[in-house]
Amino acid sequence: MQRGKLLYTGKAKSIYATDDPSLVLIHYRDDTSVGDGARIEQLENKGKINNQFNAFIMQLLQENGIETHFVELLSAEESIVKHLDMSPVECVVRNLAAGSMCRRLGVEEGLKLEPATFEFFLKNDELHDPMINDSLIETFGWASKQEVAEMKEQTFKVNDVLKKLFADAGLILADFKLEFGRSEGKMVLGDEFSPDGCRIWDAKTLKKLDKDRYRQQLGGVTEGYIEVAERLGMTLDLS
Ligand code: ADP
Ligand code: UDP
Predict the structure, then answer these.
(1) Could you give the 3-state DSSP secondary structure of residue 135?
(2) Tens digit of pLDDT for each residue in 9-62?
């Protein structure tokens, strides 16, 4: 399988066609950004780390009955996935309050959220990813009622599987964001699950080990990602 035409360049990944129209190649770059692309920098090895991190998580989710777009690792920084018709909706589940929830509701970071909360955001950098709801999604046609239900159900299933995985490694999965796309009439989990799109804290020290290290200029960003990968039992190829 080889890189064909470049189909899309995002802030952190590039999507290429392959010789099979039902599959695309994702190249995870080292680029990292905050403020919806306002600040962009390169972090050495981030592409390789996130590609392999995502492959590990997506395979685990598949073993737990959650369908994903992941097909195979092609190289340290490239994967082959099913070509999905992506919905512009982001699904966020939170087990503990952080980030925009604290800013919006004035609650303390780390507040336990029981049951876990669910939010939809619209993927739109210019509008800074506004929060949306089921009604807006249906009316504006970003997904059907049935698709909304499927995304919500699968996102909570992902939370059940991953909360336990992280807890068993002495880590807290505070929150995460997922994206879905259509394939053969179903909503399938796409994009990535990596420390770029979730919040992971050490259960004892509450040390941040995710993209907040970059957002809050704490340093040791990829070191945090690697620590999580190793504690979850991954062997990363960073050669
Ligand atoms: P962004 O678009 O937010 O800057 P990325 O750099 O992560 O983000 O770009 C990856 C893009 O590829 C995203 O727009 C995402 O929705 C899209 N994508 C992810 N998985 C698939 C897939 N399986 N098929 C088609 N597009 C995908
Ligand atoms: N998130 C993401 N991409 C986005 C927005 C949010 O991956 O465009 C992730 C983010 O990393 C966090 C979760 O979704 O794990 C919730 O993000 P939040 O709404 O708190 O926004 P933030 O303060 O991170 O911008």
Answers:
(1) helix
(2) 999 999 999 999 999 999 999 999 988 878 899 999 999 999 999 999 999 999
Helix (H) or strand (E) holding 186: strand 186-189
Closest by alpha carbon to 155, among 147, 165, 143, 166? 147
214 burial level (CB within 10 Å; 0-12, 13-18, 19+): buried
Residue 50 in tokens = 């996130």
| Atom 27 of ligand 1: nearest residue by CA position | 191
Residue to mutate, 46, 57, 92, ligand 2, most ligand atoms under 8 Å from C-beta: 92
User: Whole-angstrom Cα distance, residue 50 to residue 146?
Assistant: 31
Which of these, 201, 196, 213, 125, lies nearest to 170 by C-alpha position? 201
Nearest to 128 by CA among 164, 155, 90: 90
What single-letter amino acid sits at 192? E
Query: Which protein residue has the closest C-alpha to ligand 1 atom 5?
Result: 10
Q: How confident is the model over 69-101, as pLDDT tens digits?
A: 999 999 999 999 999 999 999 999 999 999 999
* Ligand 1 binding pocket mutation candidate from 54, 79, 86 (most atoms within 8 A of CB): 86
Instruction: Walk me through the domains of the chain, giving residue ranges and CATH numbers.
Output: 6-82 (3.30.200.20), 85-220 (3.30.470.20)
Asked if residue 199 has its Cβ within 6 Å of ligand 2, the reply is yes
Helix/strand/coil for 159: helix
